[in-house]
Design goal:
Helices cover 44% and strands 8% of the residues. The chain is an alpha/beta fold and 490 residues long. It folds into two domains: 103 residues, Nitrilase/N-carbamoyl-D-aminoacid amidohydrolase (4-Layer Sandwich), CATH 3.60.110; 260 residues, Rossmann fold, CATH 3.40.50. The strands form three sheets. Strands 8-7-6-9 form a four-stranded parallel beta sheet, with helices on both faces.
């Protein structure tokens, strides 16, 4: 029963060690007799993995005590009162002499000391408890938040800066920082002096005591909307509303002057001025004009991260947060060294579909409803009648839902083009014809192949799922492929 319940949970790969240990305790080996104490590390290991703690005590395959997952406490101690005679009785039942298997004797060993005294007879024995699982959405809220806290403490910086576009990805990164502020305020309220000392060191105030997550967020979190002539009022409003709700220090920046200055340098040297496709420009011109906007945002993000606190008379700098999800990394649907490049990325190991579920969970407390219903767009091309003319899914020629399925087949099922096509014609038989499936598979592998080199520049991200395309240590595949366009020309 325990085994079935555990394996049916949708749990991120980073927690796999804990789940495996629970399986060993509950049903590993041929029997589960005996008492087991399991202690897991807690905190960031200096890399992409966060150890979630969750110590436990078990006896004869039953969990009798469970620690807390995803806590900002450095140390957690749990205890349970066990009756060791229960172990002897359990073994005796398993080794009944009428069993056909070879008997396994259980000897009683006499020693000259006792693990308890007379008063312990009156102590109540802990009874089995139901194992408490977090939902995937809760894990997105808690795991990356604790990872960010460890990174912030170790880096010696004074907070985070996030380019907030008003879309699902950057909104998810912002909500994770807000979740961190909630955890920190709860820990201080519970009397955790270590967390209080760390918070005071981060904000640079030895008398500060956080009481409200929004107020703490205003001290350690800065968001900036970097708009251009291609941006809409809707995205500007969504970013401002979300920043106001979580309490971040928000700025609105216009990048048009910087973009025109860079293009002016190019024009002065070459005598040519590139145009967008809607204005008669070629595909190369159109792509270059999109890329320069994205890269300007990255440069400005680092500038404000270094000097925004200085402009307010406060010490320290800020860590730049990224907001590129797994699906964008998988297809390379981002500019190399653009605003997706950052110091760390809390959502780099999570798919768009899971991020939407995460924001859906928060919709009662934060203004996420409009963000969820808005079409995902980079807003890098000119508007048409004041409205967005470019969307991510149209550019990629597939939806994020389809891409999520494809990404899992590529990594988890280790599918190449042909085996993926064979699986998808059955999975999508009610939605797409075999010809349409073939076109999507070919297009995906073309995008994956020509953009795989971008994986070498990915921002370090919290490793959360087994479908991650992270080139560093996890998805060790070539980053230079022979472009499949020639092979699939027919």
């Amino acid at each position: 029963r325990h085994y079935t319940d555990l394996t049916q949970m949708k749990t991120p790969a980073v927690l796999g060690v804990d789940i495996i240990c629970v399986l060993i305790v509950l049903c590993g080996c041929d029997r589960a007799e005996g008492s087991t104490l399991y202690a897991n590390q807690k905190g960031c290991d200096g890399d992409r993995v966060y150890y979630d703690g969750c110590a436990m005590v078990a006896i004869n395959g039953d969990i009798v005590a469970q620690g807390v997952q995803f806590s900002v406490n450095d140390v957690e101690v749990i205890s349970a009162t066990l009756d060791l005679e229960d172990v002897r009785s359990y073994r005796g039942r398993e080794n009944h002499p009428h069993l056909e298997s070879d008997p396994k004797p259980c000897y009683r060993v006499r020693v000259n000391f006792s693990l308890s005294d007379v008063d312990d007879v009156h102590l109540p024995v802990h009874q089995p408890v139901e194992w408490c699982f977090h939902t995937p959405e809760e894990e997105i809220s808690l795991g990356p938040a604790c990872w960010l806290w460890d990174y912030l403490r170790r880096s010696g910086q004074a907070g985070f800066l996030l380019p907030l576009s008003g879309g699902v990805d950057s909104a998810s990164s912002a909500c994770i920082v807000h979740s961190l502020c909630v955890l920190l305020c709860r820990a201080v309220e519970d009397g955790n002096t270590q967390v209080l000392d760390d918070v005071r060191r981060v904000v640079g105030d030895s008398t500060y005591r956080p009481t409200q997550p929004r107020e703490l967020c205003s001290r350690i979190f800065t968001t900036c909307y970097m708009g251009s002539e291609n941006s809409t009022e809707d995205t500007r409003t969504r970013a401002k509303d979300l920043a106001g709700e979580i309490g971040s220090t928000h700025m609105t920046i216009n990048i048009d002057l910087a973009v025109r200055s860079i293009l002016g340098i190019f024009s002065a040297v070459t005598g040519k001025w590139p145009q967008f496709g809607v204005n008669g420009g070629s595909r190369r011109e159109n792509l270059a004009l999109q890329n320069v906007q994205a890269r300007v945002r990255m440069v400005l993000a680092y500038l404000f991260a270094q000097l925004s606190l200085w402009s307010r008379g406060r010490p320290g700098g800020l860590l730049v947060l990224g907001s590129a999800n797994v699906d964008e990394s998988l297809t390379g649907y981002f500019t190399k060294y653009d605003c997706s490049s950052a110091d760390i990325n809390p959502i780099g190991g999570i798919s768009k579909a899971d991020l939407k579920n995460f924001l859906f969970l928060l919709r009662r407390d934060l203004p996420a409803e409009h963000i969820l219903t808005a079409p995902p767009t980079a807003e890098l091309e000119p508007l048409k009648d004041g409205q967005v003319s470019q969307t991510d899914e149209a550019d990629m020629k597939m939806t994020y839902s389809e891409l999520s399925v494809i990404g899992r087949l590529r990594k988890i099922s280790m599918c190449g083009p042909f085996s993926m096509f064979c699986k998808l014609i059955h999975l999508w038989k009610d939605l797409l014809s075999p010809v349409e499936v073939a076109q999507k598979v070919k297009h995906f592998f073309w995008m994956y192949s020509v953009n795989r080199h971008k994986m070498t520049t990915l921002t370090p991200a919290y490793h959360a799922e087994s479908y991650s395309p992270d080139d560093n240590r996890f998805d060790l595949r070539p980053f230079l492929y022979d472009t499949p366009q020639r092979r699939w020309a027919t």
